[in-house]
Structure formats: structure tokens, C-alpha cells
UniProtKB/TrEMBL annotation:
Purpose: Involved in the recovery of exogenous heme iron. Extracts iron from heme while preserving the protoporphyrin ring intact.
Region (Disordered): 128-147, 235-258
Gene: efeB
Cofactor(s) listed: heme b
PROSITE patterns cross-referenced by the UniProt entry: DYP_PEROXIDASE (PS51404), TAT (PS51318)
Source species of the chain: Paenibacillus agri
Protein name: Deferrochelatase
Family matches, as InterPro entries: Dimeric_a/b-barrel, Dyp_perox_C, Dyp_perox_N, Dyp_peroxidase, EfeB/EfeN, TAT_signal
Enzyme Commission number, as recorded: 1.11.1.-
Dyp-type peroxidase C-terminal domain span: 245-427
Length: 439
């Protein structure tokens, strides 16, 4: 169970409906999300019971994290886009697109068509209306036909290049949305960088996520083309029914120090753009940093456990800060041994990323494995680091500058891809993705 779930138990009632036993079981909101996604408990309970269960925490109507519906769908229409605060699904299919048109009207049409398709894809419906006509190519490619929505979320954004001279939108570019500055040790391959648009597809089934991107790319034909894609994974709900913090491919729990996504005030401070922060069209939106980070797995695997733990500043097994016992114990950077040496090395990843604790971000990364690099004979595996923040420069760049200069972890990894996107605010029914900018 996540530390943020511990205080959020639904209050039991005295109702004696058939599903009451389940309702009275102490289940955290996050457990609930996991259960509904992984086991279809939502289906078992039915929509009403689910609604009642989720509302017991007192947060259903205005919850910052969209509830999972009985059919394992996450509402597409909401104040904020899904896939940001949404508890991470098992799989990711990330896609960056380049626009091939120079007409803004084409871009608007594409975003309108993507909106209709996204509403279908996230609820397990087929895309388009030519799916039972024998004389026409089906409008949906079909591989997700009959599959559940699997908590599929589609999160849309635009990159800095969207605001170049092509569409006359330069004046609307948020000031922090610019290509990232070079960082020490970067070894970026343009094939893994940039993009005019992005779609982050997440789902508890990889075929569902793949299907979503494939169909969005198909719809984009003539207007936009895929620039780069990356599949990602975490452990599945089946492999980890306790829903602990996922481990990255270096074996460490990754996500422990994230802020509490159910704390609306905290999310407004860290993640969502507020009015006055930037152009009004981004109010309720957020900024995404994506880094493709390849691990030097072979080097890591030869280093001792104590070196590995000193690198992260945390114990591998428990995820606790060095010198502490519990994963969620405070990261006490002042704790020292008898000789006065800090228990958590000052150049460890956790110490540097934490800094004085005033600059935070929401991380939502996925592991990737891209097979064997034929040239080096090494695995191309690592982390597709994804973070969401209210301001890319004040948050991501500030922390990454500290890390790139001094982080012990740098010996074991190399940043090979990079992109930033402004993720639009949520879409209201009747509206379309990006309508605050292009509507
Ligand atoms: C610029 C931001 C960050 C990059 C890039 C980054 C890369 C990166 N991180 C890990 C693994 C871990 N990171 C952990 C903590 C952590 N990392 C960042 C930021 C970046 N990481 C932050 C803000 C924090 C939280 C610090 C805090 O306040 O406690 C941890 C420790 C456990 C946890 O909190 O999640 C791990 C493990 C990898 C492998 C990686 C590059 C690929
Ligand atoms: Fe990190």
C-alpha cells in the first residue's frame, strides 16, 4: 500500500446489501483502482455499488483522480486530462508525432477527430462507423475488439516546435515550453527527441495501448506522421497484488518520494498550471518532460549492493532511506554516523533530487526494453522517465541540472532521448482536445 493511501480508508456503513461485505472491507482508494483494473471487481459490484464505494472516501464527485468506471474505463472527459494523476497502468505506448501540414485548419480537424476516437478508445468501443460494411476498409483496425478498456488513458500534448512559424501561434507559446538546455553527459540521438505532438497511451493491456496509438496514427495520415515511439512496462497487478511501489530495472523501488496525487492543493502547487502562470489556454494543463535513459546494465550488475545503495541513497530491498527502516520514512539528509559522515551520500540520486525539498515534480516513468544493440552486444534497456510539472524550467531543469553535474547514478546510465510537451487541460463533452488554444 502506498503511504498516501494509509489515511484514506472508506468509512464502513450498516447497510446489508449483497455486495455489502465487499463494501465494508477496508480498501484504500488506490487498492480499489488496482482491483477494478486488474480483477474486474467493478463489474462484479455494478456501477451503483462502485459509485457508492468510491464516494465513501468523500472524494468521488470532486476527486482529483478520476474514478475507474464499472467497465474498467477512466473517464476521458474531465477537468484535467487522465493519465497524469491516474495511478500508473501496467503498460505504456508513447508516441511523438510531426505535423506534415502547414494549415492550422487541418490541425484543428485532426484534434477533433482524435477527440472522438479517444472517447471511443478509452471506453472499449470501435473507432469510426465503417466497421460492419463489407465494401469498405474497417475504420478500426480491430485488434482490441472485445477487449475491456483496461483503464486506457490517452494524454495529448504539443511540443515547442508546434509554436514555430508554421501555424502563426508563436505568441501563444508558454515561456517554459522550450527545448531543454543541454545537460552534462547528454548523448541525445535525434531519433528519440522532440515532436510537434505527443500521445501518451497507458493501459493495463499492451495490445489496448498499441491499438490506441495505431488508430490515432492512422487517423492522422495526411496531417501528421509518427516521429518516435516507445513501449514501456511496469510489473503487472497480477504479479504484484499488494500494489507496492514498482521497481525499475536497476532493482530499486521508483516513485516512493512522489507527492500525494489525492492532495488537490499539492497538485495545484506542483502539477497544474494556474491562472497567471502562463497563457490562459493552459490553465488546468501541465508540462511533461520525457527522457529516454539507457542503463549501463552490465556495469550496474557488477557493482556491489552497498555501492548500489549508496548510488540511490536508499536500501534496495525495503526502499527505505539509508539508515531508516520503512520505505516511507523521511529522507533525513542530516542523519550521520558516529564520525559525522552523512548516512545518505550527498551525491546520491535521492539526496540530489530532493535538494532542500522545495522543488518537486510528479514522476510517472516506465521501464523499457528495446532488445539487443547489435553494435555493442548490450541490452538497450532503461527508463522512459516521464514527469509532470507546473513549470519545466523551475522544476525539471532545476533538478536535472543538479543531477547531471553530480549524481552518482550517472556512471550507470546515459540520456539518449529528450522531449517536452504542454499537455492540454481536460476536455469537456462537446469540446475537443486543444480547444482552449484552437477552438
Ligand atoms: C530531473 C528529474 C529526475 C530524473 C531525470 C531522474 C532519473 C532517474 N531516477 C531514477 C530512480 C529513482 N529516482 C528516485 C527519486 C527521485 N528522482 C527524482 C527526479 C529525477 N530522477 C526525484 C524528484 C526523486 C524524489 C526525491 C525525493 O524528494 O525523495 C528514486 C528513489 C525512490 C523514489 O523516490 O522514487 C529512485 C530509485 C532513475 C533510475 C532515473 C534515470 C533513469
Ligand atoms: Fe529519480
Amino acid at each position: 500500500m502506498n503511504k498516501h493511501d494509509k489515511d484514506k480508508q472508506p468509512t464502513p456503513t450498516t447497510n446489508s446489501e449483497p455486495s455489502q461485505k465487499l463494501l465494508d472491507t477496508k480498501v484504500s482508494r488506490r487498492d480499489m483502482l488496482r482491483l477494478t483494473g486488474a480483477t474486474g471487481l467493478g463489474l462484479l459490484l455494478g456501477g451503483g455499488a462502485m459509485g457508492s464505494l468510491l464516494s465513501r472516501g468523500g472524494t468521488a464527485a470532486k476527486a482529483p483522480v478520476a474514478p475507474v468506471q464499472a467497465d474498467s474505463s477512466i473517464p476521458f472527459y474531465a477537468n484535467h486530462q487522465a493519465g497524469i494523476l491516474t495511478p500508473a497502468q501496467n503498460f505504456l505506448y508513447f508516441a511523438a508525432f510531426d505535423l506534415t501540414t502547414t494549415k492550422l485548419s487541418d490541425v484543428k480537424k485532426l484534434l477533433q477527430e482524435w477527440t472522438t476516437a479517444a472517447a471511443a478508445l478509452t471506453t472499449g468501443r470501435l473507432v469510426g462507423n465503417t466497421n460492419d460494411s463489407p465494401n469498405l476498409p474497417p475504420s478500426d483496425t480491430g485488434e482490441a475488439d472485445g477487449l475491456t478498456p483496461s483503464r486506457c488513458t490517452l494524454t495529448f500534448g504539443v511540443g515547442p516546435s508546434f509554436f514555430d512559424e508554421r501555424f502563426g501561434l508563436a505568441g501563444q507559446r508558454p515561456s517554459s515550453l522550450a527545448d531543454l538546455p543541454p545537460f552534462v553527459g547528454d548523448n541525445l540521438d535525434p531519433a528519440w527527441c522532440g515532436g510537434d505532438l505527443c500521445v501518451q497511451a497507458c493501459a493495463d493491456d499492451l495490445q489496448v495501448a498499441f491499438h490506441a496509438i495505431r488508430n490515432l496514427a492512422r487517423i492522422a495520415r495526411g496531417t501528421a506522421v509518427l516521429r518516435w515511439t516507445q513501449e514501456g512496462f511496469q510489473r503487472t497487478g497480477e504479479a504484484d497484488p499488494k500494489n507496492g511501489t514498482p521497481r525499475n530495472l536497476l532493482g530499486f523501488k521508483d516513485g516512493t518520494g512522489n507527492p500525494d496525487v489525492t492532495d488537490e492543493a499539492e497538485m495545484n502547487k506542483i502539477v497544474w498550471q494556474g491562472s497567471g502562470d502562463g497563457p490562459a489556454w493552459m490553465n488546468g494543463g501541465t508540462y511533461m518532460a520525457v527522457r529516454r535513459v539507457r542503463f549501463r546494465i552490465e556495469v550496474w550488475d557488477r557493482s556491489s549492493l552497498s555501492d548500489q545503495e549508496a548510488t540511490f541513497g536508499r536500501h534496495r530491498q525495503s526502499g527505505a532511506p539509508i539508515g531508516a527502516r520503512d520505505e516511507f520514512d523521511k529522507l533525513d539528509l542530516k542523519a550521520a554516523d558516529a564520525s559525522g559522515k552523512p548516512l545518505i551520500p550527498a551525491d546520491s540520486h535521492s539526496a540530489l533530487a530532493h535538494g532542500d525539498g522545495t522543488v518537486k515534480m510528479l514522476r510517472r516513468s516506465y521501464s523499457y526494453s528495446g532488445g539487443l544493440n547489435a553494435k555493442t552486444g548490450q541490452l538497450d534497456a532503461g527508463l522512459l522517465f516521464i514527469s509532470f510539472q507546473r513549470d519545466l524550467v523551475k522544476q525539471f531543469v532545476t533538478i536535472q541540472q543538479r543531477l547531471s553535474r553530480n549524481d552518482r547514478l550517472n556512471e550507470y546510465m546515459v540520456h539518449v532521448g529528450s522531449a517536452v510537451f504542454a499537455c492540454f487541460p481536460g476536455v469537456r463533452e462537446g469540446g475537443f482536445i486543444g480547444d482552449t488554444l484552437l477552438g
